[in-house]
Amino acid sequence: MTEAILLVGGKGTRLRPLTINTPKPMVPAAGVPFLTHQLARARAAGVEHIVLATSYLAEVFEPYFGDGSKLGLSIEYVTEEEPLGTGGAIRNVASRLRSAPEDPVLIFNGDILTGLDIQALVATHRSSGADVSLHLTRVEDPRAFGLVPTDPTGRVTAFLEKPQTPEEIVTDQINAGAYVFRRSVIDTIPAGRPVSVERETFPELLASGAHLQGMVDSTYWLDLGTPQAFVRGSADLVLGRAPSPAVPGRCGDRLIMETATVAPDAKLTGGTVIGPGAVIGAGARVTGSTVMANAVVEPGAVVTDSLIGAGARIGARTVLTGAVIGDGAEVGADNELRDGVRVWCDTTLPPASLRFSSDQ
Ligand code: GDD
Ligand code: MG
To answer: Domains in the chain, ordered, with CATH?
Structure first.
């Protein structure tokens, strides 16, 4: 049986300022909690048993996913009293694993949207005989990631988490947050204290001569660390660019949840998602955006690459581009908000109070 550990705890699991009480893995992407996509992709790759390693607001996962049977999975939940870090979280769930010592165990960061061929990673792991195998991807700026140089055979030569100095940036290959561990390697991680797999476990394994194998796979990959990335990922799921068996309905230009109300002449494109109970007014144009549950976009508003939080209201003719509007916020009519702006939850912006273009 193939099994996997999903890491969904730690400090960065809340998506501020949008959904103060919802941990990031439960924020809807393409209509379902983001985690559903990772679970469904793992299942499609043959994974049957998943242990969710959680630390923050853990109680929201189990009521939704239960024993996992709706997804064809068997899911267990383990909650850390204090966050144990990535390595500590992995070690903390070791007793729940059913694999034999030599078996491969999959481990996924819980905030990644990817088209990774999971079976190919397991196959690479088996054929190379590695202790740990890592999915690597290439990015332009690796500073926010774990840098992973490899030799010509793909064997990992170093692991540099969040490199800072120019000398440290020796490759554009980064840790994409999906691993295969030989089960017995998990048991060597120290128990009962915080451990970073990136800063401690990987460098120590390399220093002791262990075999870490990298698999560069340049498929779709996105770290959902920012709300803007979340909007992009959700749109890519709807458009079918990011493959997931969990997208409700067929992929296309838009996804409109059942109880939403959309005016007949509103134009929804670019992977836009309209959440349950949301209302889109006449002549509004919404492109590549996520409109969360019960939000209102009034007539003539133009919304592009933006996130509109649950219950928020966007006034008539207001223009939003690359904006993040918190839950319950009200942006009055005839405003213009541009790239990077974040409107905090429950704030009110009066009509015609902000614009970027000329006054003509
Ligand atoms: N259970 C548990 N407990 N999970 C944790 C903890 C913890 O204490 N700390 C972090 N996690 C989970 C997070 O929820 C996330 O899914 C994953 O582990 C990675 O943690 P992040 O905090 O998101 O790390 P990062 O994004 O800065 O960097 C990681 O991901 C990059 C790729 O996106 C590292 O693995 C980098 O090396 C990698 O390049
Ligand atoms: Mg992350």
So the answer is: 3-223 (3.90.550.10), 253-349 (2.160.10.10)
Whether the CB-CB separation of 129 and 122 falls below 8 Å is answered with no
- Which is it for strands 324-325 and 342-343: parallel, antiparallel or unpaired? parallel
Q: Which two tokens stand for residue 329?
A: 């916020």
Instruction: Give the list of residues 6+ apart from residue 138 with CB closer than 8 angstroms, or none.
Output: 172, 173, 174, 216, 218
Tokens at 144, concatenated: 């926010």
Angle CA 290–291–294, to nearest 5: 155
Determine the distance from the C-alpha atom of residue 105 to the mean position of all C-alpha atoms in its chain, rounded to a whole number: 21
261 close to 280: Cβ distance less than 8 angstroms: yes
Per-residue pLDDT tens over the stretch 32-76: 999 999 999 999 999 999 999 998 767 789 999 999 999 999 999
Q: What is the value of pTM for the model shown?
A: 0.94
> Both ends of the chain: CA-CA distance in Å?
66
Tell me the torsion sign for CA atoms 124, 199, 99, 82.
negative
**pLDDT confidence tier of residue 18, bands split at 50, 70 and 90:** low
Mean pLDDT of the chain: 93
- CB 83 near ligand 1, within 6 Å: yes
The set of residues, in sequence order, having a beta carbon less than 8 Å from that of 319 and lying 6+ positions away, is: 301, 302, 303, 335, 336, 337
Between the CA of 230 and the centroid of ligand 2 the distance, in Å, is 12
**Ligand 1 centroid distance, CA of 10 (Å):** 7
Phi, psi of 52 (to 5 degrees): -90, 115
Contacts 24+ apart (CB under 8 A), 66-72: 68/39, 71/36, 71/39, 71/40, 71/43, 72/43, 72/48
| In the predicted structure, residue 12 carries a pLDDT above the cut 70 | no
Pick the residue whose CA is nearest to atom 31 on ligand 1.
145
Q: Would the CB of 149 count as within 6 Å of ligand 1? A: no
